[in-house]
Amino acid sequence: MGTVYDFAGNILFVKIDGELDHHVTDGLRESVDRIFENKNMRHIIFDFSEVTLMDSSGIGFVMGRFKKTDEKGGKTFLVGTNPYVSKVLNMAGVFSIVKRCENREEAVRLTKMEVK
Please, what is the Cα angle at 73 between 70 and 78, to 5 degrees? Predict the structure, then answer.
């Protein structure tokens, strides 16, 4: 699994490649949280276009990051969710609080519009 991090202003971009399951979420959580705090980010945009498998720990990972952004008055967005990942996230109710976007540009636009 490879993860790519990028920044723009107060937005952290995280592109996840491979499986998002209990084998990788602990390390990924630590990395994302460290960058989010150290770089003083407010929003997170996750690119799931290369995620091939996701289990309940992946759902917990997304929800935990949502909580962190929400505490700072920011937002969490998901882009590139394939039908399988979308189904898992939808069944778990994640899309009722985390916005799914068509692409990175749409998510960036919404960070500027959706401020608490």
Answer: 55
Pure H helices in 72-103 = 83-91
pLDDT at 116: 43
Partners of 46 in the beta sheet? 14, 78
Distances (CA, A) of 94 to 6, 51, 84, 99: 24, 16, 14, 8
- CATH superfamily, region 2-113: STAS domain (3.30.750.24)
What is the residue extent of each domain of the chain?
2-113
Mean pLDDT value of segment 40-53: 96
31 compared with 116, residue with greater pLDDT: 31
